[in-house]
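User: If only I could read backbone structure tokens as easily as an amino acid sequence. Those tokens are not coordinates but codes from a learned vocabulary of shapes. Could you go through the record with me and say what the backbone is doing? Here is the record:
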Amino acid sequence: MQKETITILGCGWLGLPLAKALIKEGYSVKGSTTTEEHLETLHDAGLEPFLVRLDPEINGEDITDFLHSDILIVNIPPERRDDIIEYHIEQFSSLIDALGQSPVRSVLFVSSTSVYPTLNREVTEEDALEPETLSGQALLLVEDMLMQESGFQTTVLRFGGLIGYDRNPEKYLASMKEIANADQPMNLIHRDDCVKVILEIIRLQQWGEVFNACSPVHPLRREYYTKAAKVTGMSLPPFASSAELSSYKVVNSAKLTKALNYQFLYPDPLAQWS
């Protein structure tokens, strides 16, 4: 049986290794970049490369061919700009219009746990009501836009903080004068788990869903950076003094683990250094 054709909008730090994993599984994959010099990188990885931009209108050499797929994976974060919300909405309005002229029937939207406010408790998928950051607000509005479309089914995947490979805390340690909110729990997920989760959603056809995706162990910031300093040999900045725990949230991914029967490759983010 021939597997689906998949288009990935955004083949960067996560999108490119995801594309390679999909190709290894037998999928035909198209991928986009916003810079011409990366086209060869995508081609060498086995993708059909496209130069595509949303600025905010979708444009490129052949958008019709780019979107001629069964599944679209959207992996583009909101751009940091003064009109971040309005601009992100315009980007996705243009994309949705283009999807209306395509055969795409399933969309996987990579979102973020920034859609959750700091409620000082565990949060589930139903708690995305009033994001505190502009990027979180932009993401939640776009999630709703995609989920309301009837021409295709959308699954929203809310990742925690991405770690692994070159996304290590070494560069943060070097710039830190002190570590704030030392007793705040962290919501993290390794890139290998991100890729595996997406593969499982596609394999099991889990469309029309909203999933959190964070490792089930939530180390405190003091634990995480202490381990990072020990592994890298860097100096550990002092912990900021505070009378009480600052605002926090603990992201619950039980819905995802149950639906996919998923076991995390890195259930404890500290294990990335084991």
